[in-house]
UniProtKB/TrEMBL annotation:
Residues 30-376 form the Aminotransferase class I/classII large domain. Its cofactor is pyridoxal 5'-phosphate. InterPro entries: Aminotransferase_I/II_large, DAP-NH2Trfase_DapL_Desulfo, LL-DAP_aminotransferase, NHTrfase_class1_PyrdxlP-BS, PyrdxlP-dep_Trfase, PyrdxlP-dep_Trfase_major, PyrdxlP-dep_Trfase_small. NCBIfam families: DapC_direct (TIGR03540), PRK09276.1 (NF006756). One of its GO terms (biological process) is lysine biosynthetic process via diaminopimelate. This is Aminotransferase. SUPFAM superfamilies: PLP-dependent transferases. Keywords: Aminotransferase, Transferase. The lineage of its organism: Archaea, Methanobacteriati, Methanobacteriota, Stenosarchaea group, Methanomicrobia. Belongs to the class-I pyridoxal-phosphate-dependent aminotransferase family. Its EC number is 2.6.1.-. Coiled coil: none annotated.
C-alpha cells in the first residue's frame, strides 16, 4: 500500500520508545523518562500572555504569511544581532519555520534529488537522513568520534562523495553527544563547502542551553558562512516551547528563497498569535533562559557525579540537556535500564551507526527524579 520511500524508512526511534514506555506504565512501573529531549519546564508567563492577547484579536485568525510576519522576521534578525553580532536582512534572509524540524525535513526538497548526496552526522538527529531520503537523495554518514571531539573529520570524506554532495548538516551544541564546536571547525566547514560547492545547514537548536559560562557561537559568525549556508534555530529548547512549533532559518538569501518556495507549496505558515508570542520571547527579558540553564546545570551535576560514582564513563557536557555515556551495547543497555530500573534512556545506535557504544540521558526531569534514577541504577549489577 505504501510508497517505497516509506518502506525504506527505519522506524522513528522516539515513537518506538514511546510504545515501550507505555507498556511499562501499563504494567504499573513508575517510569523515569530520561528519553526524549522535551523540557519539563513551563513556557515563561510573559510569552503565554502574548499568545493569549494576540489570540483574542480576530485579525489574527486568518491564514498567516507563508514566510513569517514582518514583525517576527525583524525580531529574529534583532535577536541574531544582539546574541551573535550577526546582521541579516529580515526580508530576504529570514523565514519562519513550524519548529526547526519543518526546516530540517523540507530543505532537501529544495536542494537535492536522485543521484545527490547529503552529508549527515552519525550519530545525529534522525530527520537529517529521513529528509534526504524523502527527496530521493543518498546520505553519507560522517562519523562523530570521541577521539575527534565528536566533530566530523572532513578530510576523511571520500572525494567522489564530496563531489556528489549538495548539502551538509552540522549541529553544535550537538544532539546526542552534547559536544561543542570551536570556531576553527566552522572555518574548516566554510572552506570545505566552498571547495565542493556544498550548502551547509547549521542546526543550532541548543545554542542557548549552556553551562559554566560557555556561550555557543552561531555558524553565521564565521567569515564566509553566509555565502555557503544557513542556520536553523528554534524557540523550542530556549524558551520551553516545544509544543508551540516555531523556529527560523537564517542566512544565505538563495537558500532561504529555495526553502520558502518548498514551504509555500506545503504549509501555510505559523499561527500569528504564536509568532507574537515568539516576538515576546526574543525581544523580552532573557533571565528565564539563564534560570533554565541553572536548573539544567544542577541536574547535570547530580547525574554526572552519580554516574561516575557508579563507575560509568561519562563526560560533563558544556551545553545541551543531554548526557552521552559510553556503554558496551546500546540497545541491550537501554533495554536493561527499562526492564531492571524503569528508566528510559535512548540507545545511541538509534541516532546512526556511530552512536553504537553509547546511550543518551535527557536531563529533562527534576533533581529528585534524577537522584532516584541514580539510586535505582546503583542497585543493579551492570
Ligand atoms: C538537533 C535537533 N534539531 C532540531 C530539532 C527539532 O526541534 P523543533 O522542531 O522543536 O525546533 C531537535 C529536537 O529535538 C533536535 O534535537
Amino acid at each position: 500500500m505504501f510508497a517505497q520511500r516509506i518502506a525504506n524508512l527505519p522506524p522513528y526511534l522516539f515513537a518506538r520508545i514511546d510504545e515501550m514506555k507505555a507498556k511499562k506504565r501499563a504494567e504499573g512501573v513508575d517510569v523515569i523518562d530520561l528519553g526524549v529531549g522535551d523540557p519539563d519546564l513551563a513556557t515563561p508567563p510573559h510569552i503565554v500572555d502574548a499568545l493569549i492577547d494576540a489570540a483574542k484579536n480576530p485579525d489574527n485568525h486568518h491564514y498567516p504569511s507563508y514566510l513569517g510576519m514582518a514583525a517576527y522576521r525583524q525580531a529574529v534578525a534583532g535577536w541574531y544581532n544582539k546574541r551573535f553580532g550577526v546582521d541579516v536582512d529580515p526580508d530576504s534572509q529570514v523565514i519562519s519555520l513550524i519548529g526547526s524540524k519543518d526546516g530540517v525535513a523540507h530543505i532537501p526538497e529544495a536542494l537535492v534529488g536522485p543521484g545527490d548526496y547529503v552529508l549527515v552526522p552519525s550519530p545525529g538527529y534522525p530527520v537529517y537522513s529521513t529528509g534526504a531520503l524523502f527527496a530521493e537523495a543518498k546520505t553519507y554518514e560522517m562519523p562523530l568520534l570521541k577521539e575527534n571531539g565528536f566533530l566530523p573529520d572532513l578530510d576523511a570524506i571520500p572525494n567522489n562523495i564530496a563531489k556528489k554532495s549538495k548539502l551538509m548538516w552540522i549541529n553544535y551544541p550537538n544532539n546526542p553527544t552534547s559536544a561543542i564546536a570551536p570556531p576553527s571547525f566552522y572555518q574548516e566547514v566554510v572552506e570545505f563547502a566552498r571547495e565542493h560547492g556544498i550548502v551547509v545547514v547549521s542546526d543550532n537548536a541548543y545554542s542557548e542551553i549552556s553551562f559554566d559560562g560557555y556561550k555557543a557561537p552561531s555558524f553565521l559568525e564565521t567569515d564566509g558562512a553566509e555565502e555557503v549556508g544557513i542556520e536553523m534555530h528554534s524557540l523550542s529548547k530556549t524558551y520551553n516551547m516545544t509544543g508551540w512549533r516555531i523556529g527560523m532559518a537564517v542566512g544565505n538569501k538563495e537558500v532561504i528563497r529555495g526553502l520558502g518556495i518548498v514551504k509555500t507549496n506545503i504549509d501555510s505558515g505559523v499561527f500569528n498569535p504564536v509568532q507574537y508570542a515568539a516576538i515576546a520571547a526574543l525581544e523580552g527579558p532573557q533571565d528565564c533562559v539563564a534560570e533554565a540553564c541553572k536548573i539544567y546545570q544542577e541536574r547535570r551535576d547530580v547525574l554526572v557525579s552519580g554516574l561516575k560514582k557508579l563507575g560509568f564513563d561519562v563526560t560533563t557536557p558544556k551545553a545541551t540537556f543531554y548526557v552521552w555515556m559510553s556503554v558496551p551495547d546500546s540497545i541491550s543497555f537501554a533495554a536493561r535500564m527499562l526492564d531492571e530500573t524503569g528508566i528510559v534512556v535512548t540507545p545511541g545506535v538509534g541516532f546512526g551507526k556511530s552512536g553504537e557504544g553509547y546511550v543518551r540521558f535527557a536531563i529533562t526531569r527534576s533533581v529528585d527524579r534524577i537522584k532516584e534514577a541514580v539510586e535505582r541504577m546503583g542497585e543493579v549489577k551492570w
